[in-house]
Amino acid sequence: MGGHECDPYKIPDYKQFTIQGIPQLEELEKALAKKGLKDPWIRNEAWRYHPGFGTPLLRARKLFFRGFPLGLALTVVTVAITKLAGGDDGHGDGHH
C-alpha cells in the first residue's frame, strides 16, 4: 500500500550493545550482584554510552541550542524589516 522498496532505517543488532567496557553499567551490575539482584535489561542502556551518541554535555547542548542560529537569524531579519518599513509598535508616541 504505497510502500517503498528500500528500508530507510537500519536496525542495529542488539548483540553489539554490551555493558563490558562501560564503567557506569559495570558498577551498577556489581552493586546489584552484591544485593543478590540481576537486571536482565541492563544492556538496553548501553546505547546511551555508545561513542556515536555523544557525551551528556554534547547531548544537552544539542537539545537546548539546536535551533538557536536559525532563530537568531530570523529575529534579526524581522527586526530589520520592521525598522526599514517604519513599523510602529504603538509604545513610542508618549500617549497613554
Automatic annotation (TrEMBL):
Membrane topology classification: Single-pass membrane protein
Main localization, broad class: mitochondrion
Organism: Papilio xuthus
Compartments (UniProt record): Mitochondrion inner membrane
Top-level taxon of the source organism: Eukaryota
Function: Accessory subunit of the mitochondrial membrane respiratory chain NADH dehydrogenase (Complex I), that is believed not to be involved in catalysis. Complex I functions in the transfer of electrons from NADH to the respiratory chain. The immediate electron acceptor for the enzyme is believed to be ubiquinone.
GO CC terms in record: mitochondrial inner membrane
PANTHER family the UniProt entry points to: NADH DEHYDROGENASE [UBIQUINONE] 1 BETA SUBCOMPLEX SUBUNIT 3, NADH-UBIQUINONE OXIDOREDUCTASE B12 SUBUNIT
GO biological process terms on file: electron transport chain; mitochondrial respiratory chain complex I assembly
Listed InterPro entries: NDUFB3
Transmembrane parts of this sequence: 63-81
Family: Belongs to the complex I NDUFB3 subunit family.
Protein name per Swiss-Prot or TrEMBL: NADH dehydrogenase [ubiquinone] 1 beta subcomplex subunit 3
Alphabetical keyword list: Electron transport, Membrane, Mitochondrion, Mitochondrion inner membrane, Respiratory chain, Transmembrane, Transmembrane helix, Transport
Pfam family, one: NDUF_B12
